[in-house]
């Protein structure tokens, strides 16, 4: 038998412990006495236990899908101007609606049907002639028309394909900058009362919104009263929300809007509940059902909308993954001064009392050319998890990716040696009995191999 065949096999445990980069193993192997060896073994077990605890804690933290919020302020040479939607509190103008139209609308405006005599008495109209002529107002080319719970509304800069941009901050006096409007609310033509199913306010509602969102005037718009010059300084905020499981954002396919947005989803949800309960679509909601008549709006539609407000009916409208919102800081000044009163009186025959009760001057503008970005980020992403685990491995057990390969090599050799032992043939030395009895010293034994 050769020297190579008689060589003792290498002790894998001793070789691994003396050569591995894992902390403590080689010290335990070369410890000069039993006490130090036990101390090193105890230290190894404690370090590995601490690492296992931190490993489990990091995995639990990762799979909780926590998020953090990143807020930055970006400055730009130009900022997209918002869409500005404006509605008068008064839904029906007395000078434009005929008496027949008012009779038809009376259930919605006043809660019950009213004939011409009752309407003239309620509205303080003379007993002769009509109230007005049914007309249609044509908005400017920069304004688009829409319906809301306040009736006719008009949106400035509503084209999302080519929105206006503001390139200089401030209201722009004395040059033109932002949006400047002079409005007459015409309170003398109001047809509603807060005591009877209508609005009792005088003024307008103004909503700043993204061009991709429909205006929801009843829940989001600001109120502007007459007799003031109102200054609305715009604030733009861009949101970026995370998808599940870290966040809750999603973008659904809507039936009546091309782009998903929270206001569009809420309007379609309202419409769906109303169509299901009332079998019609009111004028201020999108839908394909037949239009609701005024009596149905007062008796059925208002009831369904109240159920939505109270929580009896719900809307499943997730937050969009990206959206742009506009806020404003509103300040006021008195208007007009005595010289302006005189000019209005001479040019338009408007008295100071009429201007105070009906006139609104509105400026909408960016006071600074910037916008805020709010992003929802993972508290721990996969890269941070790997980095944290690597740091804990190095701190407690001195391991790295290469150490994992060392352990894999040791386990592979161990398994290979175990399998080779099970498959190695068993050799038995057998000596024939006849040769053993003859006592022949020259006799030779025979090796019989059993598989």
From TrEMBL:
Keyword Transmembrane helix on this protein?
Answer: yes
* Stored Pfam families: ASC (PF00858)
Q: Where in the cell is it found?
A: Membrane
Q: How does it sit in the membrane?
A: Multi-pass membrane protein
- Major location category of this protein: membrane
**InterPro entries cross-referenced by the UniProt entry:** ENaC
Residues forming coiled coils: none
Residues that span the membrane, as ranges: 35-59, 392-413
What Gene Ontology terms describe where this protein resides (cellular component)? membrane
The molecular function terms in GO held by this entry are: sodium channel activity
Report if keyword Glycoprotein is assigned: yes
| Swiss-Prot/TrEMBL keywords | Glycoprotein, Ion channel, Ion transport, Membrane, Sodium, Sodium channel, Sodium transport, Transmembrane, Transmembrane helix, Transport
Q: Which PANTHER family match?
A: ACID-SENSING ION CHANNEL 5 (PTHR11690:SF286), AMILORIDE-SENSITIVE SODIUM CHANNEL-RELATED (PTHR11690)
Similarity comment: Belongs to the amiloride-sensitive sodium channel (TC 1.A.6) family.
The protein here is known as Uncharacterized protein
Q: Where does this protein come from, organism-wise?
A: Branchiostoma floridae (Florida lancelet)
């Amino acid at each position: 038998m050769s020297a190579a065949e008689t060589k003792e096999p290498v002790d894998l445990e001793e070789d691994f412990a003396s050569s591995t980069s894992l902390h403590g193993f080689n010290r335990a192997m070369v410890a000069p006495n039993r006490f130090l060896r036990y101390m090193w073994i105890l230290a190894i077990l404690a370090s590995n236990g601490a690492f296992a605890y931190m490993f489990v804690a990091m995995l639990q933290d990762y799979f909780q899908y926590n998020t953090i919020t990143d807020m930055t302020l970006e400055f730009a040479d130009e900022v997209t101007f918002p869409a500005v939607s404006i509605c008068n509190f008064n839904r029906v103008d007395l000078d434009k609606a005929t008496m027949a139209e008012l009779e038809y609308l009376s259930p919605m405006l006043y809660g019950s049907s009213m004939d011409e005599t009752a309407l003239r008495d309620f509205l303080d109209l003379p007993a002769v002639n009509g109230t007005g002529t049914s007309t249609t107002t044509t908005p400017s080319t920069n304004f688009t028309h829409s319906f809301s719970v306040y009736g006719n509304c008009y949106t400035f800069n509503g084209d999302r394909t080519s929105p206006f941009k503001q390139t200089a901050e401030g209201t722009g006096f004395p040059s033109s900058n932002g949006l400047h409007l002079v409005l007459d609310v015409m309170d003398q033509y109001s047809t509603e009362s807060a005591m009877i199913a209508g609005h009792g306010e005088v003024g307008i509602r103004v909503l700043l919104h993204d061009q991709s969102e429909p205006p929801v005037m009843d829940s989001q718009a600001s109120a502007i009263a007459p007799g003031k010059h109102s200054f609305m300084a715009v604030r733009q905020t861009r949101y970026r929300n995370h998808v599940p499981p870290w966040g809750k954002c999603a973008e659904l396919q809507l039936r009546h809007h091309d782009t998903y947005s929270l206001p569009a989803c809420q309007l379609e949800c309202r419409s769906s509940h109303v169509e299901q309960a009332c079998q019609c679509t009111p004028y201020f909601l999108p839908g394909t059902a037949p239009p609701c008549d005024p009596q149905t709006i007062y008796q059925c539609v208002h009831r369904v909308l109240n159920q939505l407000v109270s929580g009896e009916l719900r809307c499943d409208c997730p937050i969009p993954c990206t959206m742009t919102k506009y806020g404003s800081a509103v300040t006021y000044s008195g208007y007009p001064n005595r010289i302006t009163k005189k000019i209005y009186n001479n040019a338009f025959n408007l008295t100071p009392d009429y201007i105070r009760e009906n006139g609104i001057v509105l400026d909408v503008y960016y006071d600074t050319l910037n916008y805020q970005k709010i992003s929802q980020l993972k508290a721990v992403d996969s890269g941070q998890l790997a980095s944290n685990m690597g740091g804990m491995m190095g701190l407690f057990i001195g391991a790295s990716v290469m150490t994992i390969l060392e352990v894999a090599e040791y386990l592979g050799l161990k398994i290979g040696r175990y399998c080779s032992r099970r498959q190695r043939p068993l050799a038995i030395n057998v000596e024939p009995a006849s040769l053993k009895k003859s006592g022949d010293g020259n006799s030779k034994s025979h090796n019989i191999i059993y598989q």
